[in-house]
Amino acid sequence: MDPRDDIRGERKGSAPVPLSVLDLVTVGAGRTATEALRTSVDIAGLAENRGYHRYWVAEHHSMPGVASSSPAVILAHLAAHTRRIRLGSGGVMLPNHAPLVIAEQFGTLEAMAPGRVDLGLGRAPGTDGATAAALRRTDRLNEGADDFPQQLAELTRFLDDDFPDGHPYARIHAVPGPVQATSPGGVQSPHRPPIWLLGSSGFSARLAGVLGLPFAFAHHFSAQNTIPALDLYRESFKPSAVLDAPYALIGVSALATDEEKEARRQVMAAALNMVRLRTGRPGLVPTPEEAEAYEFSAMEREFVDSWNSNVIHGTADQVRTGLDDLAKRTGADELMITANAHSGELRLRSYELIADAYDLR
Predict the structure, then answer these.
(1) Is the bond leading into 190 cis (omega within 30 degrees of zero)?
(2) Which of 10, 51, 223, 348 could form a disulfide with 310 if both were Cys (CB 3.0 to 4.6 A apart)?
(3) Whole-angstrom distance between the N-terminal and C-terminal Cα of the chain?
(4) 13, 358 in Cβ contact below 8 A?
(5) Mapping DSSP to helix (H, G, I), strand (E, B) and coil, where does residue 290 land?
(6) Pick from 180, 193, 42, 59: which is nearest to 117 by CA?
(7) Is 15 helix (H, G, I), strand (E, B) or coil?
(8) 3-state secondary structure of 283
(9) What tens digit of pLDDT does each residue of 147-171 get?
């Protein structure tokens, strides 16, 4: 099987590019993590039925409003509730984990859902410095980020089971994995989770290009860097066994509602959540009513205005226009939509409205 078939999405309906879902498993005030995870199952089912190409979850830690600290566990749950849609991490933060552990986890996921698992990797911690130190059991955090290329190479060799003779890990195998095909009577799946590199700056963009890997950029929280990073990725790209041409998706914050006013209310609640996170007060996603009653300082208001300027929101038609414009402006090969709202029901409804707007069936 051509590995590129596992990467490139298929455009559906009238969408300008393939559309996908990024799920942060957000938990609203008055809601539980159980409810948020049930919403994830509902969204994954809708996404599969309506023609979204892939469904990714992102690793975060020590954030009460984001219940996605264990992507592999969530993906296993989603694999049991879906049949066709691609599932993956957007991403797993590689410096937080031993490469062998990730190879084992995603080899297991591949065995559960053959041919539809993506392994997206990031080099940031997905949290604050203190939590990262607790995760890694070290305070030498910069060293982990600087070692990312070496960690990536090690992970790739575990996934392919091809350490050279004489390497200290040559007799260590990630299971499930290719070693099972070489054992007596062994039969192994032909699939291997494709690796994506994630980024919000130029480092991973350049590395993905040099290695000929697909690239995912976090436009939803680093919009000012999107076009420079995509340009750098394309300029650096070298054809590989994985891809013969660049393939880049971007994460997009977008929320469609039946009424424009409701979209504005939900977006303000999500922005208040970001204000609290950025000022060291992380919590559950507040209700729109709480956001309406909150008195933003001048500095907070400036942050909110800047943040919301990159959130595509409104009615389905307004969101469609915004997504069309963004795809044209960036030349992205795929848009991965994350819907941030206090209510899980509204998040689900947003993906449904966007599917309707693009006639996804």
Answers:
(1) no
(2) 223
(3) 27
(4) yes
(5) helix
(6) 193
(7) coil
(8) coil
(9) 899 999 999 999 999 999 999 999 9
- Does residue 214 contact residue 188 with C-beta atoms inside 8 Å? no
Backbone φ and ψ of 311, nearest 5°: -100, 115
Q: Give the ranges where 15-96 is alpha helix by DSSP (H).
A: 33-50, 71-79
Residue whose C-alpha is closest to residue 212's, from 189, 242, 235, 186: 242
CA–CA gap between residue 162 and residue 23 (Å, rounded): 33
C-beta of residue 60 within 8 angstroms of C-beta of residue 24: yes
Q: What percent of the chain has pLDDT over 90?
A: 86
In tens, the pLDDT along 212-244 reads 999 999 999 999 999 999 999 999 999 999 999
Query: What is the rounded distance in angstroms from the CA atom of residue 157 to the CA atom of residue 36?
Result: 35
Mean pLDDT within 5-32:
96
Work out the burial of residue 133: count CB atoms within 10 Å of its CB; fewer than 13 is exposed, 13-18 middle, 19 or more buried.
middle
Q: How many CB atoms within 10 Å of residue 322?
A: 17
Of 123, 121, 119, the C-alpha closest to 147 is 123
Are 59 and 71 in contact, with CB atoms under 8 Å apart? yes
Task: Name the one residue in this structure whose structure tokens are 């957007």.
Answer: 90
- State the SS3 of 77-91: HHHCCCCCCEEEEEE
pLDDT exceeds 90 at position 307? yes
Torsion of CA 300, 306, 311, 312, to 10 degrees: 130
pLDDT tens-digit series, residues 203-220: 999 999 999 999 999 999
Residue with tokens 């990536």: 152
Q: Bridge partners of 66? A: 26
Written as six digits, the tokens of 255 are 């929320």
Residue 93: strand, helix, or coil? strand
Q: How many CB atoms lie within 10 A of CB 84?
A: 9
Token digits of residue 182 = 């070489």
CB–CB of 45/80 below 8 Å?
Answer: no
Distance between CA atoms of residues 67 and 27, nearest Å:
7
Q: Rounded to the nearest 5°, which phi and psi values hold at 215?
A: -130, 135
CB 194 within 8 A of CB 6: yes
> What whole-number distance in Å separates Cα of residue 1 and Cα of residue 3?
6
H or E element at residue 313: strand 312-314
